[in-house]
Please model this.
Amino acid sequence: MRPSLITFTGVDEHTNPETLFELSNLYPIEFGILIGDRKSPRFPNFKALPKFAQTIKFSCHFCGHYSNDILRADFQEASEILIERGIYFERAQINSREQPINLEVLQMFAEAFDVQTIWQTRASAIDYSYFHNRYPDVKV
Model:
């Protein structure tokens, strides 16, 4: 059985664009770009990323203060990344350890940027059916 979507996370300025194009032609892939505090080499230099342009699927994975801001309904920096960077993101993933969170804020985020939004957490006691029924545009 062929998967409907594969996500490779960690694209940065050192990633060979030809490899991304080749994989994209073979498989249903999106490439995740980690967006977080600049203290780690895990987070790419945005100046180098537009070379990947609009030809392949990307997801934006917000970490650190970016995800914390989003969860407080402060979308300013997220807006700069999602709209002004020259890369079209089909999906946004909010990585957070905070509990509980206000899913209405994530619903607002999904609607504001017209992007599928996923919340990733390490929590183990979550009623997923409640979230799915109440917030259809937010995936947990």
Remarks:
- The radius of gyration is 15 Å.
- The beta strands are 6-9, 29-35, 57-62, 89-95, 116-120, 138-139.
- The chain has a mean pLDDT of 79.
- Residues 82 and 88 are 7 Å apart (CA to CA).
